[in-house]
């Protein structure tokens, strides 16, 4: 049973903004996470949701390479059908399960939309293990989880908060909230560790654990691993083409993936009047696409604090954010 209570502290108070208001702490047995009030009506529908063996789930903590991974997985599982991929947005092909509960001002029924998808379904979510559908543990669909080092994940999430969620505060307040597990989907460390441990269990063969850093270091090798995981085989030439399609520049220019509709929604919904009066932002949903971009946003003190956070997150495990 999942219980919840209003959650407020100095960190949540400083990052409350139009897109993520009213934080709650959800608890299930010995596990907990932070979500917002808008998510609460989705708890039961998600827990009771039907799951099918041919489902393919891409799960990440926010801003850990989700869009990049979705595009790769959908194409590999659909015969590299670039024509169809170009006609349908990624949100149509690979919808975000809890979208209507992850942004305070977002309308719609994202859970119902996923439930009504034709099979095989491709499903994106950012939920921690404790909030997944109960049936996922017995039906065992394919799950692809992607992690990222905390410094880059927090930096990318900060820019997302500013440009999508409507946060106008200083980056230091956002980083403090991340480090003190006071953001939506927190705690980051537990989020990652739970999926890592799942993937290492004898019964975890249905969970493929990847890292953003692996994808940047050798995308071709990751394409091979995901292909094998999905039971697909492609020629060297086909992999060459997919690798080019998944380049950062190609993804930025891909209208089916670059989330222009979401950016327009944010400009009209979550941006403050002051922000609207500023010159048009050059923000792109697919931002830097690099490892180490945190160096442009963090001073030495925050880098040290995040490195301490990384050490605490991996203590007692064989997990390394950069493996």
Domains (count)? 1
CATH superfamily: P-loop containing nucleotide triphosphate hydrolases
Computed Rg: 19 Å
SSE class: alpha/beta
What separation lies between the terminal Cα atoms?
A: 35 Å
- Overall geometry comes to globular
Mean pLDDT: 91
Number of extended strands: 7
The CATH topology is what?
Answer: Rossmann fold
> What is the percent of helical residues?
40-55%
Poorly predicted runs: none
CATH class annotation:
Alpha Beta
- For the report, how would you describe the main beta sheet? 4 strands, parallel
The strand order across the widest sheet is 5-4-6-7
User: Helix tally?
Assistant: 18
The portion of residues forming beta strands comes to 5-15%
Which architecture name does CATH use? 3-Layer(aba) Sandwich
Please outline what is shown here:
The protein has 323 residues and is an alpha/beta fold.
Describe this structure in words.
One of its GO terms (biological process) is sulfation. InterPro entries: P-loop_NTPase, Sulfotransferase_dom. Pfam families: Sulfotransfer_1 (PF00685). By secondary structure, the chain is of the alpha/beta class. It has a single domain (3-314), classed as Rossmann fold (3-Layer(aba) Sandwich), CATH 3.40.50. It is 46% helix and 11% strand. The protein has 18 helices and seven strands. The strands form two sheets. It has a four-stranded parallel sheet with strand order 5-4-6-7, sandwiched between helices. α3 crosses α13 (219-230). The chain starts with a strand and ends in a 9-residue tail after the last helix.
């Amino acid at each position: 049973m999942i219980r919840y209570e209003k959650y407020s502290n100095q960190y949540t108070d400083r990052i409350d903004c139009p897109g993520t208001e009213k934080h709650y702490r959800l608890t299930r047995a010995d596990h907990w996470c932070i979500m917002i009030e808008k998510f609460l009506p989705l708890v039961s529908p998600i827990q009771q949701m039907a799951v099918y063996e041919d489902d393919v789930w891409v799960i990440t903590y926010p801003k850990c390479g989700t869009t990049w991974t979705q595009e790769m997985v959908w194409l590999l599982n659909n015969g590299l059908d670039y024509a169809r991929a170009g006609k349908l947005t990624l949100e149509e092909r690979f919808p975000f399960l809890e979208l209507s509960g992850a942004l305070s001002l977002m309308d719609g029924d994202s859970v119902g939309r996923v439930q009504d998808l034709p099979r095989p379904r491709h499903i994106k979510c950012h939920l921690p293990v404790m909030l997944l559908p109960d049936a996922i543990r017995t039906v065992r669909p394919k799950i692809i989880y992607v992690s990222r080092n905390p410094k880059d994940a927090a930096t990318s999430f900060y820019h997302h908060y500013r440009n999508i969620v409507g946060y106008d505060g200083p980056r230091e307040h956002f980083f403090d909230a991340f480090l003190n597990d006071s953001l939506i989907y927190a705690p980051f460390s537990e989020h990652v560790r739970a999926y890592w441990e799942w993937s290492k269990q004898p019964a975890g063969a249905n969970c493929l654990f990847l890292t953003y850093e692996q994808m940047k270091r050798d995308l071709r090798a990751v394409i091979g691993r995901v292909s094998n995981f999905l039971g697909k085989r492609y020629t060297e030439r086909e992999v060459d083409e997919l690798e080019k399609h998944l380049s950062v520049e190609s993804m930025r220019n891909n209208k089916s993936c670059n989330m222009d509709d979401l950016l327009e929604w944010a400009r009209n919904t979550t941006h403050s009047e002051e922000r609207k009066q500023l010159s048009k932002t050059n923000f792109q949903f697919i931002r830097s696409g690099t490892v180490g971009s945190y160096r442009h946003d963090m001073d030495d003190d925050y880098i040290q604090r995040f490195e301490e956070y990384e050490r605490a997150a991996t203590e007692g495990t064989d997990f390394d954010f950069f493996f």
